[in-house]
Amino acid sequence: MSAVAVAPAPHLPVLIGEVISGLAVQPGETHVDGTFGAGGYTRALLGAGAGRVIAFDRDPDAIADGPSLVPQAAEDGKLILIHDRFSKMDEALETRGLAPVDGVTLDIGVSSMQLDRAERGFAFSKDGPLDMRMSKAGESAADFLNHAEEAEIARVIKEYGEEPRARKVAQAIVAARPLTRTAELAAVVRKALGFHQGMKSDPATRTFQAIRIHLNAELDELEAGLSAAERVLRPGGRLAVVTFHSLEDRIVKRFLKSRSGATPAGSRHRPMALSGPPASFEKVAKPVSPSDAELAKNPRARSARLRTAVRTDAPAWDQAKGSPR
Questions:
Q1: Average confidence score pLDDT of the chain
Q2: What residues contact 292, with CB distance under 8 A and at least 6 apart?
Q3: What is the pLDDT of residues 160-214, one digit of tens each?
Q4: Which of 2, 20, 205, 323 has its CA 20 to 30 A from that of 262?
Q5: Are 194 and 225 in a shared domain?
């Protein structure tokens, strides 16, 4: 099989070797890259021999840039780019007659491309408009922070950022309104929480993360996306999910635990729960974290965790009679 010509990668995909290994890519297979971003995983899938990659992204910039990032594959029809949420992959693939597939890869969270473009407003390291919208549509970070009730802002920061002093941050944000720039928000949070050079992490990190997750409904998207992947994978198909946050990893862990039938055993004090639908996933691997060598090259990978599993021939749970949707 001839090698697929690909453009140089502008960013480093995290745990790429472990992802490709977990997916066990075989020549000619069809894989879904649910979070195309800058195309790092797509390039690796094609380089490992995948015959076709169907790449999703809700960010119109990522889709527009796609053909130039993997030009030969796009020209040869080995790359199909779809501007949509990965949670809609089952509908999109069925409509195009592309299901089932051999593998699904999800890299959860904000992409390096979005972080590095100041005009997208995701990062406090680069001053830009308070935006943070992955799809470039809907409510922006500025809209939310300048109009939401203080209690709602505090809830978002506490729930999605796991910030213990969320109420203090929310009070400071409301007192400083209107806010329009990422540098303004970062300064407000740092002042509220205390900041000095040499701190291990910037105190604004949790607040920025929380607002981004809230605006883009990222946890809901992940839950729906895992179920969509379950529906499109063929028996023996592989799932690989990379997360960067404990809330995300918890969702993936819970999903694979339930779908693989890994329920606690019963006892004489607590009888075993009634069995649910047949397991739709098996061979659920232990989570993998980046090596020291990878962290030295790419510090952004420090919180990454990879979980993989293999699809069984059982129906998807939401297609099984009487199962939860």
A1: 89
A2: none
A3: 999 999 999 999 999 999 999 999 999 999 999 998 777 778 899 999 999 999 9
A4: 20
A5: no
CA atoms within 13 A on the CB side of 200: 0
**Residue 134: CA atoms inside 13 Å, Cβ hemisphere, count?**
24
Q: In angstroms, rounded to a whole number, what is the distance separating the alpha carbons of residues 62 and 104?
A: 18
Together in a domain, 315 and 200: no
- Residue 79 structural domain: 16-112+218-319
> What residues are paired with 33 via a beta bridge?
55, 105
Does residue 324 sit within a domain? Answer: no
Centre a 10 Å sphere on the Cβ of residue 153 and count the other Cβ atoms it contains. 24
pLDDT tens, residue by residue, 230-270: 999 999 999 999 999 999 999 999 999 999 997 544 444 44
Within a domain: 121: no
Same domain for 231 and 202 = no
Among 109, 323, 51, 116, smallest CA distance to 225 is for 109
